[in-house]
Amino acid sequence: MKYCASDLSEILLSAEQIDQRVGELAAEITADYSDQEIMIVGVLTGSFVFLADLLRQIDRPCVVDFLAAYSYGTGTNSSGEIRVERDLRVSVVDKDVLVVEDIVDTGLTLSRLIAMLQERGAASVKVCCLLDKPARREVSVQLDYVGFQIPDRFVVGYGLDYDQHYRNLPCVAVLKADKYLTRSTVE
């Protein structure tokens, strides 16, 4: 599958809008962690673009690690089952942890990750997400830094994918339904 503009029904967020908001989030985080080192935990794979841009603008000492947690597989709807496939390599004990997510919709994955980090002894756990899709929320989660709240549409770009495609788009766009409804929506 090759990217082409005809795969998209609309651009929700331009590269310029994203860049501006990422700078604002980084400034908020820098101010809130004024005298602390931050352990940033990126949730792979979707957060890597957002995390890289955000990290370069945070003016505080940071430790960065990644974990991979999945609830989607290659479909478009959460399976409800969370799998941690790559765990952290750095201990979170007594650290101020900032979880960086690409998108929060059901909240299932994020609530499990927050609980896991707290159980492992993190001093604090906060969440920064690029996109918040509250219409799909199934469990309540505290989002400390939110880039944009979006409607319940299937979006790709800026790290977000459909079946591992479209991550390289510089914007966040709505994928046309005929591009994903022809396949199984839950793996």
Q: What's the structural blueprint in terms of helices and strands?
A:
Layout: E1 8-13, H1 15-32, E2 38-44, H2 48-55, E3 62-70, E4 83-86, E5 96-104, H3 108-119, E6 124-132, E7 145-149, E8 155-156, E9 172-175
Parallel strand pairs: 2-3, 2-5, 5-6, 6-7
Antiparallel strand pairs: 1-9, 3-4, 8-9
Helix pairs in contact: 1-2
Structure notes:
The protein has helices spanning 15-32, 48-55, 108-119; strands spanning 8-13, 38-44, 62-70, 83-86, 96-104, 124-132, 145-149, 155-156, 172-175. It is of the alpha/beta class and 187 residues long. The protein has a single domain (5-179), classed as Rossmann fold (3-Layer(aba) Sandwich). The strands form two sheets. Strands 4-3-2-5-6-7 form a six-stranded mixed β-sheet, sandwiched between helices. α1 packs across α2. The mean pLDDT is 89.
> Pairing-aware structural class of the strands and helices?
alpha/beta
| Top CATH class | Alpha Beta
Helical stretch tally: 3
What sort of overall outline do the alpha carbons produce when their principal axes are compared?
globular
Strand content: 25-35%
| Poorly predicted parts | none
* Structure summary, number of beta strands: 9
Number of domain modules = 1
Give Rg in angstroms: 16 Å
N-C termini distance: 19 Å
The name of the CATH topology is Rossmann fold
**Fraction in helix:** 10-25%
Pattern of helices and strands = EHEHEEEHEEEE
Record the strand order, biggest sheet: 4-3-2-5-6-7
User: What do the pLDDT scores average to?
Assistant: 89
- The CATH architecture assignment turns out to be 3-Layer(aba) Sandwich
The description of the largest β-sheet is: 6 strands, mixed
